[in-house]
Design goal:
This protein has one domain: Alpha-Beta Plaits, CATH 3.30.70.120. It has a four-stranded antiparallel sheet, covered by helices on one side. The longest helix is centred in the first third of the chain and has 13 residues. The chain starts with a strand and ends in a 7-residue tail after the last helix. The protein contains three helices and four strands, in the order E-H-E-E-H-E-H. It has about 100 residues and is α+β, with helices and mostly antiparallel strands. About 30% of the residues lie in helices and about 40% in strands. Strand 2 and strand 3 form a beta hairpin.
């Protein structure tokens, strides 16, 4: 299991999360609203209110997730940062696999 962090506009967060779970790309997506992001874009310092998505996926499904996010995310360059998880409750891991396609643990 891995976790992917992805920021997006607050008004798009629920629809992105729902689509990823409905398509079984992710087992679960947590939406954390009201995240303030500072960054440079096209030579300018920007500050935006966003939502952070915490996306739970199978360890080898990053490419599948990336493909989906690139299709549905409104940003030209959406953030996708994958974090490896070393310890997971066995029952949770079984649930995650059962809800992300038809592969076995």
């Amino acid at each position: 299991m891995n976790i992917v962090l992805c920021n997006c506009p607050q008004e798009k967060a629920d629809s992105i999360a729902k689509e990823l779970v409905e398509k079984k790309v992710a087992a679960c997506v947590n939406v954390i609203p009201q995240v303030k992001s500072f960054y440079h874009w096209q030579g300018e310092l920007c500050c935006d209110n966003e939502a952070t998505l915490i996306i739970k996926i199978r360890a080898n499904d990053f490419e599948r997730l990336q493909k989906e996010i690139l299709q549905i995310h409104p940003y030209d360059v959406p953030e996708m940062v994958e974090l490896s998880v070393s310890n997971v409750n066995e029952e949770y891991l079984k649930w995650l696999y059962a809800n992300t396609g038809d592969h076995n643990v």
